[in-house]
């Protein structure tokens, strides 16, 4: 009995090719959606024309992004307002929880800007892997998770559930550099 493997191999390659076309066509459509969703989030935060804020250079002997095996490790980002200043103060006695949640989103906007600057295109983000949010707070404050969830929500709103959902830690400190309200570190997987 003889088997002709040639037609089977062609069939397998056709299936793989169709799968790749479907996979890539879905990605292209969502690339445009990422930018639209980002613009909407930035407009809601008060950024003119929904544009990402100008990045402030690193203030020390470090870089904003280090890549290792397709993982991007983003240095801490503080909450930069549309006016270019930073949200400062301790939660909740100097900054309300609601304002701290907004500050968390502002810090994430800076991180998305770093991703876009480094990758050139947000469609190259495969997965938001991990977030570490540090909130400057009074010693008896316990709602750090609520504050850092502002950043998580921002990322899921921009990248969608599949790419944007991530693991996370949050905690409080009695002080942060330059008296900022929150710092957010992110690990991202690139395509």
TrEMBL record:
<dbReference type="Pfam" id="PF14588">
    <property type="entry name" value="YjgF_endoribonc"/>
</dbReference>
<keyword id="KW-0472">Membrane</keyword>
<keyword id="KW-1133">Transmembrane helix</keyword>
<keyword id="KW-0812">Transmembrane</keyword>
<protein>
    <recommendedName>
        <fullName>Endoribonuclease L-PSP/chorismate mutase-like domain-containing protein</fullName>
    </recommendedName>
</protein>
<feature type="domain" description="Endoribonuclease L-PSP/chorismate mutase-like">
    <location>
        <begin position="51"/>
        <end position="181"/>
    </location>
</feature>
<dbReference type="InterPro" id="IPR013813">
    <property type="entry name" value="Endoribo_LPSP/chorism_mut-like"/>
</dbReference>
<feature type="transmembrane region" description="Helical">
    <location>
        <begin position="6"/>
        <end position="22"/>
    </location>
</feature>
<dbReference type="InterPro" id="IPR035959">
    <property type="entry name" value="RutC-like_sf"/>
</dbReference>
